[in-house]
Amino acid sequence: MAKSKLAQALNKALGKNDSIQKVEQWLDTGYPPLNRAISGRYDGGLPAGRIVEIFGPPSAGKTFLATKAMIAAQRMGGVAAFFDHENSFDVGLAVGMGLDADEDEGYWVYKQPNTFEESVENIGILLNTIRSNELIPADAPIVIVADSLASMVPRSKAEKFTKMAEGTAKDKDELNMNDNTALARATSANFPTLAQWCRQYNCLLIVLNQVRTKLGVMFGDPTTSPGGDSPKFYASVRIRLGASQLKDGKEKIGQCVGAEVVKNKVAPPFEKCSWNFYYDTGRGLDVVESLVEHMLEDGLLPKNASGRVEIGDKKYTKSQIVELYRQKPLEEIVAALAKIDSDKRAKAEAEKEAVAEAE
Questions:
Q1: Are 169 and 161 in contact (CB under 8 A)?
Q2: Which of 14, 44, 60, 188 would be 241's cystine partner, CB 3.0–4.6 Å?
Q3: Cα separation of 343 and 350, whole Å?
Q4: Sheet-wide strand order for 237-248
Q5: What is the CA radius of gyration of the chain?
Q6: DSSP conformation letters of 310-359
Q7: Which residues contact 157 (CB under 8 A, 6 or more apart)?
Q8: Is it the case that residue 60 has pLDDT exceeding 90?
Q9: Helix (H) and strand (E) counts in the chain
Q10: Which helix (H) or strand (E) holds 144?
Q11: Which three-class secondary structure state does DSSP give residue 285?
């Protein structure tokens, strides 16, 4: 079809349209219901080419989810990098989960930057080095984790602390109100570039963050995350975690972690899910147990009046159905859930078309 006069004029003046940006790759979080809450798909996950913020209280599983995404990137032929500002990453636990931490192979980068700006500079160097030299396939994702935004020290503030430590500080080097807002100004200046790099270099930047309580808030959500408003604007997905104790009698054995996708530019927002996370490092996130609970809550497993699951002419307790599902490959369960979702969407679309035709 011949182009219109308008299209020809615009093409001549501006060139062809840039390729339409949409998410082509998803990085598995390790938990299918969370994948669905983020991407609308059980076999989806975190979006490549975007910034994602995960924030919540201590030990709620932020680093666990980020590590799962790094593992997913490596399995797709990509590179994983962790910028540790909290000095809290345990590579042994990550390797036990499946991370390839062999520095000689190059698919793992671990740095402990001193300042926020140093992290930004390292991100740019890492991305440009990999992509400009074509060190991995163009479609292989890069996942960079920054842990955490709240503990990143702006360079202006770090320089004052250095002078204090050296004993060379002057009156002008005393901390003041400007230092309290230095991180917010740093994010405002740098996050536009970080978002552009994510798109340009096919990188998923996961920013882990802490939570704070806003004083004087009588109505609505009083929690917020440090770093100013820029991360909230430039993150395509923001996931808030919360946790409550799991006990076996009086013994604390883990946490029930709840997640809410409070911002989502790649799927409908405000989706929620939860899972059981155990302190036993050999168990961690019990995917099958939590997945069965999700399926029961969503009515994906049929229950009778007594609460037992009915499959064919057999009846199972919750613990029995968990053990039954442990014998199945997780990929098979996810495929079955994906088909249920697909069938639901097809049915809803057909009903919508039928209503439109009737009108």
A1: no
A2: 60
A3: 10
A4: 108-111, 79-84, 142-147, 203-209, 51-55, 237-248, 251-264, 272-278
A5: 24
A6: EETTEEE-HHHHHHHHHTS-HHHHHHHHHHHHHHHHHHHHHHHHHHHHH-
A7: 175, 179, 182
A8: no
A9: 12, 14
A10: strand 142-147
A11: strand
